[in-house]
Batch of 4 targets.
Target 1
Amino acid sequence: MVLNFKKVLLSGMALAVVATSSIGLTACGKTNTNDNVDAQDFYAMSVISSVNYFQNISGESQSTPLLFANDTQTSTAPESRPETISQDDVNNIAGYMGMFQDMLTSDTTSYYTNGAVDQDDDYYGEYNLKMTLTVPMLGGGEEEFVMYYKEVNTETEEEIDDNEIELEINTTLQGVIVNGDNVYDVSGKREYEKEGNETEISIELTTYSRANSQDYIKIEHEQENNEMEYNYSIYSNGHLINETEVEFENERNEKSLELEFVNNSVDAQNKVKYEITQSRTDENIFNVRVKNASNNSEVRDTFTIKIVDGYEFTYSNGYTETIK
């Protein structure tokens, strides 16, 4: 059976860029130590993801909606699919497979530019830095996102201990995101620590709706050597309603992606975790385990995904469906 799946281009693209260019997780487990590159890629990803989320819930989006746990396409589940796998499970996993594929490559699509704010710009004098992002829309054409901001270095410490350089840099960020007629306020911070060959990076960006400052989305990223994590927290009227955690790891040439969705607006038991691991023998095959997020030892089901013309899901009962 073949199901039509509307690919989430912008969210996958944005996450892929930060994964491929900033994390630099190679087969040897080496990391990129350029903190400025890491931060710029993360900012780009956060700008697109946040704005598309706000546009999606307001019905204003011209592009594709961002995929979160409660933003899935629904359709009648085929009778032959195991009862333990829901349509939301399928949509969530298919939406993130594009992100995972790009995490496994070394190619980076450059779709943003950085520079100073022009003197004839409306935000000149208020902010000194400008990030311009131009991304394609599914229906054709392009959409532009611009972040005006200033980033202040709040702390820098450097010392040498046992012939190893120890470096710590902390910054804060304030700015606005402009997308057509829509304007959003943004704040952030980042911490960079390096000791010898060990590097830790922590970056956070929060985007606020101007219609209601209590509606905001916080995106956090942490990187330590061969592991990286993202956390999306969505707030409505100041209350956390949805949280998505993404963890990517490259350990001994085995690349795995773990996704955990928590929807706080529904039953607390409605929590799920997906563990996706690339096959050691075929780079186009991925093994998936669906687990209860509140009970890590409880595995609901296991199945495989093969990259064909879309994603071919083969379940534990032998049933196969293709998501395009």
Target 2
Amino acid sequence: MKLRKLVLISSLLLGLTPLCLGQNIKGSPHDFTNTTTVNTSGELCIVCHAPHGTDATAVPLWNHGTTTQIFSTYIGYKFPQRGASTITQPDGASKLCLSCHDGVTAKNQFGGRLQGTSGTQQLLGTHASNLGIDLTNDHPVSFVYNTALAQLDGALKDPSTATTSLGGTIATDMLDINGKVQCPSCHEVHDQTIYRFGKISNAGSALCLTCHNK
């Protein structure tokens, strides 16, 4: 009986999590409810998510157009030197983030019924959020971060054992299901309570030092 109650309570808490995070989107740069030229429905989530007619290959209920740009990827220090993990084209959640932040794919390009895919207006401005398609000077994404890479690099913590301030290991808290570093490794896109949607505060470089052994 106690176990059943525990499972029920856990399920309720997990179910409420998206609602809590949704409250933190309001008024943030990810809130398009007041941009009537982009989102005439006034719905908070619709620009990225919808219950029907969505892309089943992306994150749950993805409702936005996905970028088809070819990106110049990071080729800096230790990539691909010394046999480090290969940087390929952005995939997973990073590709979805770049579907707005490439500065080319319109943020009004959404809707499973194609009602929002005709425009190329309302692009992100020419500021830090507009990453463009040249990612050679940005932190690499979409690469496997595992024990082998940590041992090869020497300045990275072992993701299978090193813990984070979130309570788990780097592998469980920061990497995607394929063990890759993606944009959400550092950013919590549904919660702006930490500067620039940070997943962990970078005060004292805490976010950087979660993975980097300096």
Target 3
Amino acid sequence: MLRTYVGLILAATTSLSSASEIGGVYMETRTCAVYTGPCFANAEMGLTGKDAIMAWSIESGAHDGVDVAGLNVVVVVSANQTLGFRGVDDAKQLKSLILIDDRANSLQRQALLSFARNHAGRAGKSAVRVDIAPIRMTLDFVNLKGHLKAGKVVTLKSRKTRPGECICKNEVEYYPPLAQVDQAIPATAEQGEFRGRGLGRRWSTPGARSVYMGTFIY
């Protein structure tokens, strides 16, 4: 299954700008497992998975008529309930931090903010803070190595999930990605943490099977 996903991801990545207004790659992590078995997911429900990082690296295209190719935007989510099958719509109370790429000019910053509000669902519309930060993001879909760094606030590194980490041998992509993406692949977080202000808590989830990598075309 994984080989099929990788092939589809690579095919989509090579033709992002051919028939779309805007496209690129996406990465997320949560404070719960997304590649897991039902019994483990049920054990985490209501206790964990209330926090998440959503990140878009735009490779081509424009938003609101502004070219934003080569720029990144990150949304950090904090909720009062587990972000499960309905994603950000599962929570009654939700707040977020939006991080805008510091390489963007004033028009691009507004476009990236609008992009985040449009494509992060309720999380994008529930921002209590918007900051400018140096954001760097690279994804290797073959080896599932992803690296996201947003200032001193967000760090996310991923790798392939190892066979020995599949505990019940019944693991699946249990929860869907929080954002609309194409053919997302699950991975393990070597490092996943939020160390910022404004959301009332900080967190770290190393070793969790909590990452999705994918492409998007909007």
Target 4
Amino acid sequence: MKPRFAIAIHGGAGAILKSQIAPEQEARYRQALAQAVEKGYAILERGGSSLDAVQAVVETLEDDSLFNAGKGAVFNSDGKIELDAAIMDGATLRAGAVAALRHVKNPIRLARAVMEKSEHVLLIGDGAERFAKERGIELVDESYFFTEARWQALQKAKARESLTEKEKHGTVGAVALDQFGNLAAATSTGGMTNKKFGRIGDSPIIGAGTYADNETCAVSATGHGEYFIRAVVAHDIAALMRYKRLSLQEAAEEVVMRKLVKLGGVGGVIAIDRHGNIAMPFNSDGMYRASKVEGGKTFVAIYKDEK
């Protein structure tokens, strides 16, 4: 039987090696991923929408300093934090995105407001934060986002010391299918350590880092954003399904494991189709990920060899 609902989430991809993560740190990541995916699954199980589920998951991860989104985001070259996020509704193709935020506690909440409460898709910087104020969305002082680990990563980058992929960049995201057959995707990020001020990655670019269409699939990407933008990764997966009739797994692997690799792009995606099938390919050493389908067990993984 096909599942009526399912969810998949990620917390970033890159050179994530077991030898570089302390056991207690790994346990924290696994627990955080499990709790987040369970939260989204519970919403779907009680008949909630895929949009509500992906937003709830992403907000949970934005609030967790383990991940490069919201609290715990990385610093740019000016020593500032600039946050990006997007959400998309597969039933209507409506989308909302925000970029270069400095004071919005949960960027994904503002992205949802842009989608539902404005005539626009993408708002950035001061204008986006004015809109947040108008909508009563929580703003915080920039100090809220500060974490010592991310600050030290910036100092290493400034000194041109090598950073791990975990220190360089990361993203959080979720995709879901609800009991009404609707798909949704959401993505949120702090971008790349030491990025140029004003740099925007793929996460808030609809069709690059975030995409959802009930006819095909929902996708949230993570990795080196410039490559994901150039390859229009999320939409390309949907297009391969629509026009070449590839399965979700085939389409996702074609884009992530071949097209992106050829360009030199490192990262991965989580994707779900209208039948509840899930694909989570990545061409890096690891990707923080979790999933759960109706009636199934919670799956949580970090490294390449975990199935």
